Amino acid sequence: QVQLVESGGGLVQAGGSLRLSCAASGSIVRFNAMGWYRQAPGKQRELVARITSSGSTNYADSVKGRFTISRDNAKNTVYLQMNSLKPEDTAVYYCNAAWGALYQYSYWGQGTQVTVSS
User: Fold this and answer.
1) Largest CB tally within 10 Å, which of 40, 58, 95, 102?
2) CA-CA distance, 88 to 114, in Å (whole number)?
3) What is residue 69's three-state secondary structure?
4) Distance between CA atoms of residues 78 and 9, nearest Å
5) Residue 40, class by beta-carbon neighbours within 10 Å (0-12 exposed, 13-18 middle, 19+ buried)?
6) Closest alpha carbon to 49 in 38, 41, 65, 60
7) How far is it, in rounded angstroms, from Cα 100 to Cα 118?
């Protein structure tokens, strides 16, 4: 069992930046991928960004060029740098640690609120 704890959320004006952190209670190198998801009110949870154990990344089209995911295996921490934030980025952001060929198994954090004002 791994505990994931997100931090770094908050209220920011449109155009601003935030950096989210996800600290794991154990090693993250054993997971096939670490990711950030978000869920806005009334909407389904969606993948924002993912980074694999080899360092490959992929992003939702809506955040490409604005968000950057990274990982520090020594600190068992994953980051999401969010720049040029928009009101539509407002959501609860969740950290995810996944394994399995299709990432079908995962642990989730409790989420951190990001609110972008216009």
Assistant:
1) 95
2) 10
3) strand
4) 14
5) middle
6) 60
7) 40
What's the mean pLDDT when you consider all of the chain? 96
Q: Which residue has the tokens 């935030």?
A: 18
Structure tokens at 65: 């060029």
**Of 110, 80, 89, 79, which is closest to residue 12 (Cα–Cα)?**
89
Kindly report, residue by residue over 20-71, the tens digit of the pLDDT. Answer: 999 999 999 999 999 999 999 999 999 999 999 999 999 999 999 999 999 9
Amino acid residing at 107 = Y
Task: From residue 64, give the alpha-carbon distance in Å to each of 28, 29, 30.
Answer: 24, 25, 27
CA 101 – CA 118 distance, rounded (Å): 40
- pLDDT digits over 94-112, tens only? 999 999 888 889 999 999 9
